[in-house]
Design goal:
Shape: elongated
Number of helices: 3
Strand content: under 5%
Radius of gyration: 23 Å
Distance between the termini: 75 Å
Number of domains: 1
Helix content: over 70%
Order of helices and strands: HHH
Amino acid sequence: MKWRDKVDPILKHHLEKEIQESNSCKKAYISAKDPGKAQLWCAIANLSKKIFDLNLKVSYLEGVLKDSLKKTSKRKFKKEKK
């Protein structure tokens, strides 16, 4: 039995996906002194990029939401003034 078979079933899909994605860097990590560590760093870099991209999306959506709320409150204020 492989160690990956012992991983919590809830995490297993995510683990397999990250391993698959880190394989895109295989040429790089195979040439490393310690390929296992290099593959791990590639996986960490992939996760870091995903987090960065998600943060950009969240920041954009927060800005859109704030603008939308400002416009809505301005319209409400104008209606109340009349």
